[in-house]
């Protein structure tokens, strides 16, 4: 009887370990995708900061950027702003989790 119980426990343990391994692999794939989005958001943010600095120091560059924005199709520009906004929202949601994960490491 004890042997039967031990066998069931061992089988249950193996099942749980396989389930954990599958969940870890899935989480790894999901976080890789999020990491790529965060990297793009960080790049966009840095590019925006550089652009703001450039416009502050060289107002003519700001006029050139504004002319470039007008030349780009407005629908494409709105689509880009929408994508940037969604990435920013994802970053705001994920940043505390990433900081928490780094502090635990």
UniProtKB/TrEMBL annotation:
The lineage of its organism: Bacteria, Pseudomonadati, Pseudomonadota, Betaproteobacteria, Burkholderiales. It comes from the Bacteria. This is YqjK-like protein. It comes from Undibacterium oligocarboniphilum. Pfam families: YqjK.
């Amino acid at each position: 009887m004890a042997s039967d119980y031990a066998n069931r426990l061992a089988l249950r343990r193996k099942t749980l370990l396989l389930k954990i391994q599958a969940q870890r692999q899935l989480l790894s794939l999901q976080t890789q995708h999020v990491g790529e989005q965060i990297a793009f958001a960080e790049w966009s943010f840095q590019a925006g900061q550089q652009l703001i600095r450039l416009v502050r120091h060289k107002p003519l560059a700001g006029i050139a950027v504004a002319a470039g924005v007008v030349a780009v199709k407005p629908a494409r520009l709105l689509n880009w702003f929408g994508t940037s906004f969604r990435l920013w929202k994802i970053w705001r949601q994920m940043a505390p989790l990433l900081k928490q994960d780094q502090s635990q490491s």
